[in-house]
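**User:**
If convenient, please work through this fold.
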Amino acid sequence: MAELPQNLWLAEIWLEHRDRIVRLLATRMPPAMLRRMSADDVAQEAYIACGKRVDFLQNQPEVPMFVKLRKIALQTLTDMERRHLAAGKRDAMKESMWGQDDDASMDAWANFADSISSPRTHLERLERQALARRILQDLPATDREILELRHFEELSNNECAAVLEIAPKAASIRYVRALKRFQDLLKDVEF
Protein backbone atom coordinates (compact mmCIF):
# COMPACT_ATOMS: atom_id res chain seq x y z
CA MET A 1 0.00 0.00 0.00
CA ALA A 2 1.38 3.38 -1.02
CA GLU A 3 2.21 5.94 1.65
CA LEU A 4 -0.10 8.98 1.81
CA PRO A 5 1.29 12.34 0.69
CA GLN A 6 2.06 14.60 3.67
CA ASN A 7 -0.88 16.94 3.11
CA LEU A 8 -3.36 14.03 3.00
CA TRP A 9 -1.73 12.40 6.01
CA LEU A 10 -2.04 15.62 8.00
CA ALA A 11 -5.65 16.14 6.91
CA GLU A 12 -6.54 12.63 8.02
CA ILE A 13 -4.82 13.03 11.40
CA TRP A 14 -6.38 16.48 11.92
CA LEU A 15 -9.91 15.24 11.19
CA GLU A 16 -9.45 12.46 13.72
CA HIS A 17 -8.53 14.91 16.51
CA ARG A 18 -10.22 18.15 15.42
CA ASP A 19 -13.20 18.05 17.78
CA ARG A 20 -10.96 17.52 20.81
CA ILE A 21 -8.69 20.36 19.70
CA VAL A 22 -11.65 22.74 19.29
CA ARG A 23 -12.96 21.79 22.77
CA LEU A 24 -9.49 22.33 24.23
CA LEU A 25 -9.19 25.75 22.61
CA ALA A 26 -12.69 26.77 23.66
CA THR A 27 -11.91 26.07 27.31
CA ARG A 28 -8.50 27.78 27.17
CA MET A 29 -9.42 30.93 25.24
CA PRO A 30 -9.69 34.08 27.35
CA PRO A 31 -13.14 35.74 27.30
CA ALA A 32 -11.70 38.88 25.67
CA MET A 33 -10.40 36.78 22.80
CA LEU A 34 -13.74 35.00 22.43
CA ARG A 35 -15.21 38.44 21.71
CA ARG A 36 -13.11 38.60 18.56
CA MET A 37 -13.05 35.03 17.29
CA SER A 38 -14.23 31.49 17.91
CA ALA A 39 -12.32 28.37 18.85
CA ASP A 40 -12.85 27.19 15.26
CA ASP A 41 -10.90 30.22 14.02
CA VAL A 42 -7.95 29.35 16.24
CA ALA A 43 -8.22 25.67 15.24
CA GLN A 44 -7.94 26.69 11.59
CA GLU A 45 -4.76 28.63 12.35
CA ALA A 46 -3.46 25.66 14.35
CA TYR A 47 -4.02 23.39 11.35
CA ILE A 48 -1.96 25.75 9.19
CA ALA A 49 0.76 25.71 11.86
CA CYS A 50 0.69 21.91 11.84
CA GLY A 51 1.29 21.98 8.09
CA LYS A 52 4.51 23.86 8.77
CA ARG A 53 5.59 21.38 11.45
CA VAL A 54 4.96 18.00 9.83
CA ASP A 55 8.46 16.84 10.79
CA PHE A 56 7.65 17.50 14.46
CA LEU A 57 4.39 15.56 14.13
CA GLN A 58 6.07 12.59 12.48
CA ASN A 59 8.98 12.38 14.95
CA GLN A 60 8.80 10.58 18.30
CA PRO A 61 6.14 7.97 17.46
CA GLU A 62 5.96 7.01 21.17
CA VAL A 63 4.32 10.40 21.94
CA PRO A 64 0.56 10.27 21.24
CA MET A 65 -0.43 12.31 18.18
CA PHE A 66 -3.04 14.27 20.12
CA VAL A 67 -0.37 15.49 22.54
CA LYS A 68 1.68 16.85 19.62
CA LEU A 69 -1.37 18.50 18.02
CA ARG A 70 -2.37 19.91 21.43
CA LYS A 71 1.05 21.50 21.83
CA ILE A 72 0.86 23.20 18.44
CA ALA A 73 -2.73 24.32 19.08
CA LEU A 74 -1.83 25.88 22.44
CA GLN A 75 1.20 27.59 20.91
CA THR A 76 -1.03 28.95 18.15
CA LEU A 77 -3.52 30.18 20.74
CA THR A 78 -0.74 31.99 22.60
CA ASP A 79 0.53 33.56 19.39
CA MET A 80 -2.96 34.70 18.37
CA GLU A 81 -3.68 36.02 21.85
CA ARG A 82 -0.53 38.15 21.70
CA ARG A 83 -1.38 39.35 18.22
CA HIS A 84 -5.02 40.21 18.90
CA LEU A 85 -5.04 41.35 22.51
CA ALA A 86 -1.71 43.15 22.48
CA ALA A 87 -2.34 44.94 19.19
CA GLY A 88 -2.59 48.67 19.69
CA LYS A 89 -5.96 48.81 17.99
CA ARG A 90 -9.48 48.41 19.35
CA ASP A 91 -9.72 47.49 22.99
CA ALA A 92 -10.76 43.82 23.03
CA MET A 93 -11.86 44.17 26.64
CA LYS A 94 -14.62 46.59 25.58
CA GLU A 95 -15.97 44.47 22.76
CA SER A 96 -19.23 42.64 23.30
CA MET A 97 -19.73 38.93 22.85
CA TRP A 98 -21.26 37.91 19.55
CA GLY A 99 -23.98 35.34 19.98
CA GLN A 100 -22.60 33.77 23.12
CA ASP A 101 -24.11 34.31 26.53
CA ASP A 102 -21.80 31.78 28.09
CA ASP A 103 -18.22 30.93 27.30
CA ALA A 104 -17.05 27.41 26.57
CA SER A 105 -15.20 27.09 29.86
CA MET A 106 -18.55 27.31 31.65
CA ASP A 107 -19.59 24.16 29.78
CA ALA A 108 -16.48 22.37 31.03
CA TRP A 109 -17.21 23.48 34.61
CA ALA A 110 -20.83 22.39 34.21
CA ASN A 111 -19.79 18.94 32.98
CA PHE A 112 -17.29 18.56 35.80
CA ALA A 113 -19.85 19.65 38.40
CA ASP A 114 -22.42 17.27 36.93
CA SER A 115 -19.96 14.39 37.19
CA ILE A 116 -19.64 15.00 40.94
CA SER A 117 -23.30 14.30 41.50
CA SER A 118 -26.67 14.50 39.82
CA PRO A 119 -28.17 17.87 40.75
CA ARG A 120 -31.96 17.95 40.98
CA THR A 121 -32.44 21.60 40.15
CA HIS A 122 -30.66 24.25 38.16
CA LEU A 123 -29.84 26.17 41.31
CA GLU A 124 -28.19 23.15 42.88
CA ARG A 125 -26.16 22.67 39.71
CA LEU A 126 -24.93 26.26 39.85
CA GLU A 127 -24.02 25.85 43.51
CA ARG A 128 -22.05 22.71 42.65
CA GLN A 129 -20.17 24.57 39.91
CA ALA A 130 -19.20 27.33 42.32
CA LEU A 131 -18.17 24.75 44.91
CA ALA A 132 -16.07 22.80 42.39
CA ARG A 133 -14.34 26.00 41.29
CA ARG A 134 -13.57 27.01 44.86
CA ILE A 135 -12.18 23.58 45.74
CA LEU A 136 -10.10 23.37 42.54
CA GLN A 137 -8.61 26.78 43.31
CA ASP A 138 -7.60 25.51 46.76
CA LEU A 139 -5.78 22.47 45.34
CA PRO A 140 -2.05 22.58 44.61
CA ALA A 141 -1.25 23.48 40.98
CA THR A 142 -0.08 19.93 40.14
CA ASP A 143 -3.37 18.43 41.38
CA ARG A 144 -5.44 21.02 39.53
CA GLU A 145 -3.44 20.45 36.34
CA ILE A 146 -3.94 16.67 36.24
CA LEU A 147 -7.67 17.01 36.99
CA GLU A 148 -8.07 19.60 34.23
CA LEU A 149 -6.20 17.42 31.75
CA ARG A 150 -8.27 14.34 32.55
CA HIS A 151 -11.70 15.94 32.97
CA PHE A 152 -11.73 19.12 30.88
CA GLU A 153 -9.45 18.12 28.05
CA GLU A 154 -10.46 14.44 28.26
CA LEU A 155 -6.89 13.20 27.87
CA SER A 156 -6.11 9.56 28.49
CA ASN A 157 -3.59 8.58 31.15
CA ASN A 158 -0.87 8.05 28.52
CA GLU A 159 -1.62 11.44 26.94
CA CYS A 160 -1.46 13.12 30.36
CA ALA A 161 1.88 11.43 31.00
CA ALA A 162 3.22 12.73 27.68
CA VAL A 163 1.98 16.28 28.36
CA LEU A 164 3.46 16.29 31.87
CA GLU A 165 6.58 14.48 30.68
CA ILE A 166 6.32 11.80 33.36
CA ALA A 167 5.82 8.03 33.28
CA PRO A 168 2.26 6.76 32.75
CA LYS A 169 2.30 5.10 36.17
CA ALA A 170 3.31 8.41 37.80
CA ALA A 171 0.49 10.19 35.94
CA SER A 172 -1.97 7.60 37.17
CA ILE A 173 -0.79 7.94 40.76
CA ARG A 174 -0.89 11.74 40.52
CA TYR A 175 -4.46 11.60 39.19
CA VAL A 176 -5.71 9.24 41.90
CA ARG A 177 -4.11 11.34 44.64
CA ALA A 178 -5.49 14.60 43.20
CA LEU A 179 -8.96 13.12 42.91
CA LYS A 180 -8.76 11.89 46.51
CA ARG A 181 -7.69 15.36 47.73
CA PHE A 182 -10.52 16.92 45.75
CA GLN A 183 -13.07 14.49 47.22
CA ASP A 184 -11.75 15.04 50.75
CA LEU A 185 -12.12 18.81 50.35
CA LEU A 186 -15.58 18.29 48.92
CA LYS A 187 -16.63 16.26 51.97
CA ASP A 188 -15.36 19.01 54.27
CA VAL A 189 -17.59 21.65 52.66
CA GLU A 190 -20.53 19.47 51.61
CA PHE A 191 -23.85 21.14 52.31
The chain has two domains: 6-87, 104-189.
